[in-house]
Amino acid sequence: MMKKILISTMLLMSSLSINAQAASPEELITQNLQKVNARLQVETVVKAPVDGMYEVLLNTGEVLYSDEQGKYFLLGKLFQFSESEGFIDLTEQKQSIIRKETLAKIDPEQMVVYPAEGELKATINVFTDVDCPYCRKLHAEVPKLTAMGIQVNYLAFPRQGAGTATYRNMVSIWCAESADGRRKAMDAAKGNGELTSKTCDSPVMEQFNMGQSMGVTGTPAIVLSDGSLLPGYVPAAQLAKALKLQ
Question: What are phi and psi of 160, to 5 degrees?
Fold first, then answer.
């Protein structure tokens, strides 16, 4: 009887060993991350540019790096040395692609859009908080930007989250009945004007959460058409240079 138990145990251990060996790096990495925190959701696991390492994208927008067995993890930026360019931020390149793809899925009707005057030469997407001083400073330069052919798309990012006065004001803006009404409400909110209180099923918190997943930590946060992120206030003339319009 004891001999049978030992044989069965050995067979079970052998089976587990085979299964473990058969598991792919993608499976091992995902399994181990979920053992640490079952709420972690892995979007993709692909080979990193470094031999033996894998790039792991979480649903939060964070990028991790792991060995092929999922035993070692690195949270941080991966740089590649280039003779001509110096250090290239590969992590930022990946996140730029994600930002670009995410923004492409947003219906313009869900934004507050200031169209370019005349020929459209560039578009910027700005995560904004109506009470942020530097957001107001940037907003004062929107006429300069649109005159240069730059369309400004605003997305909501009430820094203190839901339930605040700022959040309620931003809901009122996004709940205006027309594109022109949203622009007028935004102008009023950022200019200390009179803002009519409105409520609706708004995308304010959805955009706030989206911004966080893109790496937005403060406002204004400007995302260019290629997905690159410019944190903080950038003067109109400097933005035009970044967009290669000057």
Answer: -90, 5
Instruction: Return the structure tokens found at 220.
Output: 């204004």
CA–CA distance, 24 with 173 (Å, rounded to integer):
49
Closest CA to 166 of 199, 195, 131: 131
The whole-number average pLDDT for the span 203-229 is 93
**Taking the model in full, what pTM does it have?**
0.80
pLDDT in tens, 6-43: 444 444 444 444 444 558 988 999 998 888 888 888 88
Is residue 40 within 8 Å of residue 33, measured between CB atoms?
A: yes
3-state secondary structure the chain: CHHHHHHHHHHHHHHHHHHHHHCCHHHHHHHHHHHHCCCCCEEEEEECCCCCEEEEEECCCCEEEEECCCCCEEECCCEEEECCCEEEEHHHHHHHHHHHHHHHCCCHHHCEEECCCCCCCEEEEEEECCCCHHHHHHHCCHHHHHHCCEEEEEEECCCCCCCCHHHHHHHHHHCCCCHHHHHHHHHHHHCCCCCCCCCCCCCHHHHHHHHHHCCCCCCCEEECCCCCEEECCCCHHHHHHHCCCC
